[in-house]
Write a structure and sequence with these properties.
Radius of gyration: 20 Å
CATH topology: Rhopdopsin 7-helix transmembrane proteins
CATH class: Mainly Alpha
Helix content: over 70%
Largest sheet: none
Structural class: mainly alpha
Distance between the termini: 28 Å
Low-confidence stretches: none
Number of strands: 0
CATH superfamily: Rhodopsin 7-helix transmembrane proteins
CATH architecture: Up-down Bundle
């Protein structure tokens, strides 16, 4: 509930406040939509399973959950990379920023993030659910995720492991590289600024995004890009709760508590409500 309220509240706030109609907040509203979506694709069923005796999920339901969760998770990966590029464009060359990040370009970047996320998830889903599942078919997890499904299959999962690892590695590492290169350029630009006030202002615009990126990619790298031999289902359950529930809930707080524009817009709305 807190995740949905926080993220949907952020979307509404950005929509109704004209001062927030900028590329940075367009990306932030898209991120809030993705956070709400990938959390809601898993959390309701996960909460039901905690209290219900019947924890069953149909094959098609499992495939749908797997696909949409993977789609939005992948989209967030690409979207965070696009947001890093946006911050780079704003700080490196402020005069060209309106041209570099026009409304059309911002829309294309967000659309590309969604296409990449959903396309990658389609490959993962197709590769995973072509396998044979026999035996107990009892998933040792809160939801349908890659590691427990591969362990559950009675087919040879060697090819699946290679393909999934290749695609995941390429997507995550390419996004991380975009973020690192963008922030390296941002750091160079900030250090070259003559005034302390200018450096502080530039850094403050990036602090929230940098914190969100560190938490998200750190968790994803630990979860999916480590050797199969080191997987522990109990450990993975704890980590999965963190990035399906905690991260989507934290992001609105990170971006609002560290952002004067968002806090100012929220304050104006609250003042109107009290009048």
């Amino acid at each position: 509930m807190a995740t949905m309220v926080g993220n949907l509240g952020m979307i509404v706030l950005i929509k109704i406040d004209p001062h927030l109609h900028t590329p940075m907040y367009f990306f932030l509203s898209s991120l809030s939509f993705v956070d709400a979506s990938y959390s809601s694709s898993v959390t309701p069923k996960m909460l039901v399973n905690l209290v219900a005796e019947n924890k069953a999920i149909s094959f098609n339901g499992c495939a749908a959950q797997f696909y949409f969760f993977g789609s939005f998770l992948g989209t967030e990966c690409f979207l965070l990379a696009m947001m890093a590029y946006d911050r780079y464009a704003a700080i490196w060359n402020p005069l060209l920023y309106p041209v570099l990040m026009s409304g059309r370009i911002c829309f294309l970047l967000v659309a590309t993030s969604f296409l990449a996320g959903f396309g990658n998830a389609a490959i993962h889903t197709g590769m995973t659910f072509r396998l044979s599942f026999c035996g107990s078919n009892q998933i040792n997890h809160f939801y349908c995720d890659t590691p427990p499904l591969l362990k559950l299959s009675c087919s040879d999962t060697h090819i699946n492991g290679i393909v999934i690892m290749a695609f995941s590695s390429f997507n995550v590492i390419s996004c991380v590289m975009i973020v690192l290169i963008s922030y390296l350029c941002i750091l160079i630009a900030i250090l070259g600024m003559p005034s302390v006030e200018g450096r502080h202002k530039a850094f403050s615009t990036c602090a929230s995004h940098l914190m969100a990126v560190t938490i998200f990619f750190g968790t994803i790298l630990f979860m999916y890009l480590r050797p199969t031999s080191s997987y522990s289902m109990e450990q993975d359950k704890v980590v999965s709760v963190f990035y399906t529930v905690v991260i989507p809930m934290l992001n609105p707080l990170i971006y609002s508590l560290k952002n004067k524009d968002v806090k100012g817009a929220l304050k104006k709305i609250l003042e109107k409500q009290t009048l």
